[in-house]
């Protein structure tokens, strides 16, 4: 499917605000791909589809996880984590995307994971720094993203873990694993 067609499908599936966020992630991801000499095609597809399942109900997401053999473990963690793996499944099955890097960037865009590729790091960081975001600390991540993708991703993970701890939420293991790996990387 051509990119403009995928864009139309995404627009149909999402709320206006979510679609506009998606387009800002897409634009940010293309800037970073250009800066780091990564595949614009991969990050474009992954960014356009990363939140494709975001407007599904909890019921639909849960059914999709069960029906499509996604990790049951997800169901024991925050519901906000469910949409990434479900979107990755739809990207494969409906949009016929076969590139593993693109699929992983969609799958892990919320949690992160160990050994993220540059394409994954770009989508992960772009989701956090797109110009519509106003998290505390986002400006620091925007500056880091211009010089070091891994340091930027580490800061996103650190901010997110602190945010989750402060509200007594659980933290998905992949998030800790990604944070630990990127922190060891600095030494
Ligand atoms: O879908 P978006 O709003 O664009 O952003 P996202 O998919 O990165 O994240 C959705 C939310 O999930 C984010 O505010 C933090 C929250 N969250 C809940 N549990 C976890 C988590 N994020 C991480 N990294 N790990 C968790 O265990
Ligand atoms: Fe998301
Ligand atoms: Fe994110
Ligand atoms: Fe997003």
Automatic annotation (TrEMBL):
SUPFAM superfamilies, per database record: HD-domain/PDEase-like
What keywords would UniProt list here?
Answer: Hydrolase, Iron, Metal-binding, Nucleotide-binding
Listed EC numbers: 3.6.1.41
Residue span(s) of domain HD = 18-132
PROSITE patterns with a match to the protein in the record:
HD
List the GO molecular function terms.
bis(5'-nucleosyl)-tetraphosphatase (symmetrical) activity; metal ion binding; nucleotide binding
Give the reaction(s) catalysed. P(1),P(4)-bis(5'-adenosyl) tetraphosphate + H2O = 2 ADP + 2 H(+)
Q: Which leading EC class covers this enzyme?
A: hydrolase
What Gene3D superfamilies does the record point to? Hypothetical protein af1432
Q: Which CDD domains match?
A: HDc
Q: Please name the PANTHER family in this protein's record.
A: BIS(5'-NUCLEOSYL)-TETRAPHOSPHATASE, SYMMETRICAL, SLR1885 PROTEIN
Query: What's the protein name?
Result: bis(5'-nucleosyl)-tetraphosphatase (symmetrical)
């Amino acid at each position: 499917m051509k990119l403009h067609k995928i864009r139309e499908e995404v627009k149909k599936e999402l709320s206006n605000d979510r679609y506009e966020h998606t387009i800002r992630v897409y634009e940010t991801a293309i800037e970073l791909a250009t800066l780091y000499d990564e595949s614009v095609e991969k990050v474009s597809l992954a960014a356009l589809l990363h939140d494709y399942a975001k407007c599904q109900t909890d019921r639909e997401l849960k059914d999709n996880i069960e029906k499509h053999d996604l990790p049951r473990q997800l169901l024991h963690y925050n519901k906000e984590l469910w949409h990434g793996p479900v979107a990755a499944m739809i990207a494969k099955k409906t949009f016929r995307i076969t590139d593993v890097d693109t699929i992983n960037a969609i799958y892990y865009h919320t949690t992160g994971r160990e050994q993220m590729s540059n394409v994954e790091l770009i989508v992960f960081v772009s989701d956090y720094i797109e110009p519509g975001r106003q998290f505390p600390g986002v400006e620091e991540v925007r500056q880091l993203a211009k010089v070091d993708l891994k340091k930027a991703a580490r800061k996103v993970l650190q901010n997110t873990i602190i945010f989750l701890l402060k509200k007594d939420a659980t933290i998905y293991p992949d998030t800790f694993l990604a944070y630990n790996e990127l922190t060891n990387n600095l030494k």
